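**User:** Here is a favour to ask of a fellow structure person. Please take any protein you like and set down a full record of it. No explanation is needed for now; the record alone will do.

**Assistant:**
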Amino acid sequence: MITQILTHTPLWVFGLFFGLVYLGCVQSRTRQVSRSRLIVLPIAMLGWSLYSVWSTFDTHLTALAAWACAWGTVVAIGLARGPSRTASYDAATAQFTVAGSWLPLALMMGIFFFKYAVAVAHAVKPGGLDTTMVVALVSATYGLFSGLFMARAVRVVGTMKGQRLVERSA
């Protein structure tokens, strides 16, 4: 059955997989990024997860509400945790130094394989994802993954405020 699933997978899916692996490997190294570049990945993951909900469940109100609740909760927890301890902001260059982490790769692979599994489940048993509980669970999982990306970015951006407070007190 696995061979049949893989042979029916469009080629672009494999390209997307390898692109995400590359992007995750880049995230594993400490790097300097601007604020606009820092937010690109979380926005892309937000869009991808919303598209995943929309393409699977259309405008199902439960799906959109579950996604929004999970996303908002994770981002709020990120805000409550305060600025990142593994990032810093240099006002002179307007750049963030972000410590390398394998977490983004893990999250991207989580979203990718979860979406792939949902698509396979939908193809193998059409209508099998139509119960309210499954709709809410799948949508909330997409919201959780993309919320983690956004929470991480928000915490890094929070280092700007901490840097400004240090500069004012000096």
